[in-house]
């Protein structure tokens, strides 16, 4: 038994109260985060400043007492470390110089990749040494498919058209890009574990737009390869998959990828998950982030419903996606209070 409830659930043990953390728990809804963000000067500077990245990672732990911290970074540090130009523009989000052919892929700089990410590993070491005995530390990366959609399209989009068209029309080059991202993800997660991460989560935020055959090829199979590659280097470290909006494809994803746990988006039926997924792996989720903005009875009712629906198996309470900037911090505190009210 670990002293950390989050790790106990991932190890297949039931807990009387579900451990809780929230995606984007370090973010713009916290005034203390905004002060540090101002010090950093830019979002990317914040990601690459170990002292400041560690500080914002620890802020929600100090304020709310979450059961896990997740290192502050971004899924696009992988393409940036591979040499792709990246900027975060106010009002636009991430903007990259698109890579959509063999020449662009061949120009990616795999040599020195981990060295360029050393600030992330230093931040992990700082957080690991600062956390208490009951709080776990999570590392993460973006899934190859989701990262590739930004690399090929140059920015986020509602339909990931550029990456999907490249995968259909130029599968050989797209497969080469995905192979690079699988290898980079394994190396990056392994280094995060060596720096102190006790579990990792792989975010496939754009999985939901893929048809079933492409979902298997570009989401499930890469996740299986990452999980197996990480297991060779760090066999005891659990891997949480998050194929957002995958719907009925969640089940084959869990069965074929071999993930240790799966995170559910807000559209997933918790009763379906309890019947089909919890017998296989612990589940994580899945409160609508906008309910945390709203607060009140609607939020409280849904927190209790999710907790009760998933009480029969391994459950880590979380959101169906990340906290949004307009979230009142007191509503986050109220979610935690409800979950622990029976203790």
Keywords:
343 residues, alpha/beta, TIM Barrel, seven-stranded parallel sheet, two-stranded antiparallel ribbon, 17 helices, 51% helix
Question: Could you please describe the fold and organization of this structure?
Answer:
The chain has 343 residues and is α/β, with parallel strands linked by helices. Helix content is 51%, strand content 12%. The protein has helices at 5-10, 31-40, 43-47, 50-64, 77-81, 102-106, 113-116, 118-130, 144-153, 161-169, 171-194, 212-233, 250-257, 270-276, 289-294, 296-309, 329-339, and strands at 68-70, 86-89, 93-96, 136-142, 199-204, 239-243, 261-263, 283-287, 315-319. A seven-stranded parallel beta sheet has the order 1-4-5-6-7-8-9. Strand 7 (261-263), helix 14 and strand 8 (283-287) form a beta-alpha-beta unit. The model has no long low-confidence stretch (mean pLDDT 96).
Uncertain residue ranges: none
Number of domains: 1
Percent range for β-strand residues? 5-15%
Instruction: Give me the Rg, rounded.
Output: 19 Å
Mean pLDDT, rounded to whole units? 96
Helix content: 40-55%
Oligomeric organization of the protein chains: single chain
Provide the CATH architecture. Alpha-Beta Barrel
Q: Do you know the CATH topology?
A: TIM Barrel
């Amino acid at each position: 038994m670990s002293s950390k409830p989050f790790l106990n659930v991932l190890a297949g043990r039931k807990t009387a109260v579900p451990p809780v953390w929230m995606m984007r728990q370090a973010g713009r809804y916290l005034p203390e985060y905004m002060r540090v963000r101002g010090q950093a000067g830019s979002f990317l500077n914040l990601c690459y400043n170990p002292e400041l990245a560690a500080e914002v990672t620890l802020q929600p732990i100090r304020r709310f007492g979450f059961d896990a911290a997740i290192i502050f970074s971004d899924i696009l540090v992988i393409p940036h470390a591979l040499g792709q130009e990246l900027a975060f523009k106010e009002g636009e989000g991430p903007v990259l110089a698109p890579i959509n052919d063999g020449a662009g892929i061949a120009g990616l700089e795999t040599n020195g990749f981990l060295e360029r990410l050393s600030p992330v590993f230093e931040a992990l070491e700082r957080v690991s040494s600062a956390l208490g005995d009951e709080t776990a530390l999570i590392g993460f990366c973006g899934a190859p498919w989701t990262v590739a959609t930004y690399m090929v399209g140059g920015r986020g989009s509602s339909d990931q058209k550029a990456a999907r068209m490249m995968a259909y029309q130029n599968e050989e080059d797209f497969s080469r890009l995905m192979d690079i991202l699988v290898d980079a993800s394994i190396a990056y997660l392994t280094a995060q574990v060596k720096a102190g991460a006790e579990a990792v989560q792989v975010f496939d935020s754009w999985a939901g737009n893929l048809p079933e055959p492409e979902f298997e090829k570009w989401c499930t199979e890469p996740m299986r390869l990452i999980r197996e590659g990480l297991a060779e280097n760090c066999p005891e470290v659990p891997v949480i998959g998050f194929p957002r909006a995958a719907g009925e494809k969640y089940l084959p994803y869990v069965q074929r990828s071999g993930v240790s746990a799966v995170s559910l988006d807000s559209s997933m039926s918790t009763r379906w998950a309890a019947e089909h997924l919890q017998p296989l792996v612990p589940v994580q989720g899945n409160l609508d982030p906008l309910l945390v903005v709203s607060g009140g009875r609607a939020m409280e009712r849904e927190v209790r419903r999710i907790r009760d629906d998933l009480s029969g198996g391994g459950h880590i309470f979380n959101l169906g996606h990340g906290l949004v900037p307009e979230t009142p911090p007191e509503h986050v505190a109220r979610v935690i209070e409800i979950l622990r009210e029976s203790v």
